[in-house]
Amino acid sequence: MSHQIPNNPVTSLASLVRTHGIILGTERYEACLSFYRDTLGLPVWFEKAGLCCLRFGDGYLMIETGGMARDTRKPNSENPTMLRFNVEDVSAAADLLEAKGVKVERKQFAWGQVGTFFDPDGNACELKNADDPFFSDEGA
């Protein structure tokens, strides 16, 4: 049985998506919540027992219990995903995080600069310069 939105045929899942999100299962829930909410400054959208939904650009990052922590970066076999923060100035963003006690590894490439850091569970996050044409309106 095919479902359609009135006057709008459904041609793809993308045509039905209203918002996108990432759900991050954490072992160190309180520490991860504090990291993303307080240290990185992601605003709270809503909270329930055992989860907090934070605004993440035009989507959300939901922090939940039930993950696995590492004291170092998780290997890709445990978490092949990296949260990317496209920022106007990687150096300024890295300086800001370092002032808050977050270690940031900065790397310069021909295509731009990145700054990699980790949350309290060992999940990788990365700063990327947003002036990359693929991430700007000019590249659309």
Describe this structure in words.
This protein has two helices and eight strands. The strands form two sheets. Strands 1-4-3-2 form a four-stranded mixed beta sheet, covered by helices on one side. A four-stranded mixed beta sheet has the order 5-8-7-6, with helices on one face. The radius of gyration is 17 Å and the shape is globular. The chain has helices at residues 29-39, 90-99, and strands at residues 21-26, 44-48, 51-56, 59-65, 83-87, 105-109, 112-118, 124-129. With 140 residues, the chain is α/β, with parallel strands linked by helices.
Topology (elements, then pairings):
Elements: E1 21-26, H1 29-39, E2 44-48, E3 51-56, E4 59-65, E5 83-87, H2 90-99, E6 105-109, E7 112-118, E8 124-129
Parallel strand pairs: 1-4, 5-8
Antiparallel strand pairs: 2-3, 3-4, 6-7, 7-8
